[in-house]
């Protein structure tokens, strides 16, 4: 085995490597801040709807009143589950992961889009909006069919988040619940060159179409080191044991003991740590406040006990802070989503960021094709 001479240049996992410019979002780990086109995500989460944020991420400015109305009309008109997508979903076994269903649905929607191959900004914006409008129906219907429930048709009188919950549960959610869910959607929408967004940009750099890039991004998001962590967080809570009658303090003590054992066994605990943020994820305080609202609304202090216990123990032992997937896991559980649906919720939101990056990549494209250092056998020949 030989090592080539350029091994000093290897940046494993591309850690610390700046690959390109982006105007879409700015992550500043020193100040724990995240800006979408200059706006702090906390302000957007507090004052905007998901529709306004989607418009901002795609267009660089918040929409005017008329632009928002037109956008909402288009989004609402695109919510119904495509009948072919429904037939394909119905053919998929319920043993497959819901992320496989999302990935397949994105691919089918691309195959059915007559403008799939048109890579103009105008066509890509239309495709992005269509995917954003369509994905909640996919996610909602997939959870329902696994429970033996029928498809719920969308409601045009509801906003994006309220309709998402309506299509999933078939009842109108309380405003507190809609708001907490909407905050999670806004926080998940965009986060610079994370693994799935970079995947979308790599695929786009070959001049492949938008749906191919989104389909690949969904695959990247599935892994537990990325989006799949929100599911793993809830699995941890379940492993520790959720008992709605337990007090905050008792649940906290059990969670602390679990974490101490996990860390002693050198386990990686999902929902903690981040490649970029080393002093805490900018999005966590906002999502934690939304989770607190849900805990109050549902009257579930033991969930807060588990949350606090794990967080405190991890902080004391290793100083590692939670990432966004940590509060979203229990939030989605309280709202009533099944654990395997959590990462598809992330997909529904992140479609906005992925498609914005796809359009930005195309504006100034260069094929993404890094080098590798060969460490296989020296040249040899067949006998
Ligand atoms: N649990 C326990 N230890 C951890 C954790 C964790 N969640 N995260 C990092 N560490 C420790 C590592 O064991 C390592 O310790 P060592 O130096 O003693 O070996 C050190 O911290 C550095 O960890 P790396 O994995 O090398 O850091 P990296 O920047 O590569 O990883 C990552 C970041 C992948 C997110 C990591 O923190 C992790 O695996 N976390 C759990 C998965 C997770 O929650 N992912 C969600 C990411 S955010 C999102 O997608 C919204």
From TrEMBL:
NCBIfam families: cit_synth_II (TIGR01800), PRK14033.1 (NF010636). Coiled coil: none annotated. The keyword Oxidoreductase does not apply. Belongs to the citrate synthase family. Pathway: Carbohydrate metabolism; tricarboxylic acid cycle. Pfam families: Citrate_synt. Keywords: Acyltransferase, Transferase, Tricarboxylic acid cycle. Gene3D superfamilies: Citrate Synthase, domain 1, Cytochrome P450-Terp, domain 2. One of its GO terms (molecular function) is citrate synthase activity. It catalyses: oxaloacetate + acetyl-CoA + H2O = citrate + CoA + H(+). It comes from Sinomonas terrae. It comes from the Bacteria. This is Citrate synthase.
